[in-house]
Design a protein that fits this description.
The protein is α+β, with helices and mostly antiparallel strands. The strands form two sheets. The chain has a four-stranded antiparallel β-sheet with strand order 4-5-6-7. The chain has a three-stranded antiparallel β-sheet with strand order 1-2-3, with no helix packed on it. It is built from five helices and seven strands, in the order H-E-H-H-E-E-H-E-E-E-E-H. A hairpin with a 4-residue loop joins strand 4 and strand 5. It comes from Bombella pluederhausensis. Pfam families: SUKH_5 (PF14567).
Length: 132
Amino acid sequence: MEQLKEYLIERGAIFTPSDEDGVKNVENIVGMALPEDYRVYLREMGTIFLAGKEFYGAGVPEGYYLNAGTALKKLRTFPDYPAFMLPLVSSGDGAWFLYDCQRESVFSWQVAGDVDDQKKSLEAFIREFFQA
């Protein structure tokens, strides 16, 4: 994750690293301990802003739209929202990329209920997302 962070910094990324309380808050909302790679992401980067793109996480106030816990609470109001998945990116048209805390993989999800495994780790997905 450190090399990824350096790569993003070189491109002008802005981060909001989270403290342990922020990480625990996300865990409480999800209802389970977070995988280590996601915990590292939250502590090292928190959220990411780069070239008009935004990546959900922690390190921002609860209630802020990029706070993963806040977004998760709203997304769980959809009856087909997959359990144990955290929001990473919204396309703005009802499509989301989510991180599955059990499988430690990124999935795409449509509000209509379609779920598709992207077969990517969190780190690989972040790198790919910010390359485009």
